[in-house]
Amino acid sequence: MKILAAMSGGVDSAVAAARAVEAGHEVVGVHLALSRMPGTLRTGSRGCCTIEDSMDAQRAANIIGIPYYVWDFSDRFRAEVVDDFIAEYSAGRTPNPCMRCNEKIKFAALLDKAIALGFDAVCTGHYATLVTDEAGHPELHRASAWAKDQSYVLGVLTAEQLARCYFPLGETPSKGLVRAEAERRGLGVAHKPDSHDICFIPDGDTRGWLAEKVGEKVGNILDNEGAVLGQHRGAHSYTVGQRKGLSLGRPAPDGRPRFVLEVRPTSNTVVVGPREALAIGTIAGGRWSWAGQPLAHPERDFECEVQIRAHADPVPARARIARIDPEAEVYREGATEEFVVEPDEPLHGVAPGQTAVLYVGTRVLGQFTIDRTVSAVSVEAQA
């Protein structure tokens, strides 16, 4: 096959490209420039897509012996990922920019361009596994290394995209083995730290970055009965489940810590309360997709597992596709159906804007962006 290897400048993508060559494919390396003004250097594990990363990727491509190019996707990245991140926070939601980047950039814009140029597939260093079912349809499954599994962030991929993907690291038992292989191959990135945090906020100060983008506006912090407990400098700086940084000045009557329960951007207020108030009995979202073939009758309850963060444990649940209440105000225009998931045990710290990925066994079934939640307390009261 003719394969385009997406090379981030890290060890995983470099080894993935090398394995693709070793498997006999015709491979071309490409690094995505996602910022017009990237930092020239990384700080440990902070940041990615910097000039240093581009140079690391080029050195790896030279050692592997493949052509290498840099493609400027900065305009689309800003529109599809950065601007979306700002808009979601401004609307009181907690977005996952890595999901949007995979959906809109790495497996949409990049794949579309690769196909237009005659490539058969895009190769990345993600830890996930592709399986073909009896009918020849692609399925996305967890990697063999559970601790490194990245199938969650790939849950946005469609059947058409999966058919054009290549994940050479999916069966590798550990990241240590990948680093050891990189060292044997003479790749200088063998011991380069993994990237963490949001790539376009390399210093990790999300609150400060958002304040620069959308400004600060003083508002009230309320308890779950509506009493004013203090003030904040911008509701966009808070997310559901947050405990630190509330600066209330006085403890709760029972002395226990408070957590953010709700962010209300319209009134610029933040609601806080006890941890048990974070327990969620139902989640639902209208922006959803199948990762591969859809279920034959998704309107019927089916058993699955739901995962709401990249490194969270999956929770057994029941799910279905249902019609959206036309009076509901939380949905984006045009949405007519929603995924509704009821976990067997309450979820905690769930915020609108997060991505829920559904699994059946090791297979990724699909995903949706959480638009609304129902308290587990409310569900118990109705039972």
Tell me the fraction of residues in β-strands, as a range.
Answer: 25-35%
Overall tally of structural domains? 3
Oligomer: single chain
Low-confidence stretches: 379-383
Count every helix, treating DSSP H or I runs of 4 or more residues as helices: 8
DSSP strand tally: 19
InterPro entries: MnmA-like, MnmA-like_C, MnmA-like_central, MnmA-like_central_sf, Rossmann-like_a/b/a_fold
Domain tRNA-specific 2-thiouridylase MnmA-like C-terminal: 285-366
Site (Interaction with tRNA): 126, 354
Family: Belongs to the MnmA/TRMU family.
Explain what the structure shows:
Catalyzes the 2-thiolation of uridine at the wobble position (U34) of tRNA, leading to the formation of s(2)U34. With 383 residues, this protein is an alpha/beta fold. The chain folds into 3 domains: 2-184, Rossmann fold (3-Layer(aba) Sandwich); 216-273, SH3 type barrels; 279-382, Translation factors (Elongation Factor Tu (Ef-tu), domain 3, Beta Barrel). The chain has helices spanning 11-22, 51-64, 74-90, 97-116, 159-162, 175-184, 206-214, 376-382; strands at residues 2-6, 26-33, 68-72, 121-123, 128-132, 138-142, 165-166, 219-223, 228-232, 259-264, 269-273, 280-285, 287-290, 302-307, 315-323, 337-343, 355-360, 363-369, 372-375. The chain has an 8-stranded antiparallel beta sheet with strand order 13-18-17-14-15-16-12-19. A 5-stranded parallel beta sheet has the order 3-2-1-4-7, with helices on both faces. It has a 4-stranded mixed beta sheet with strand order 9-8-11-10, with no helix packed on it. Helix 1 (11-22) packs parallel to helix 2 (51-64) and helix 1 crosses helix 6 (175-184). The longest helix is centred in the N-terminal third of the chain and has 20 residues, at 97-116. The protein is globular, with a radius of gyration of 22 Å. It starts with a strand and ends with a helix.
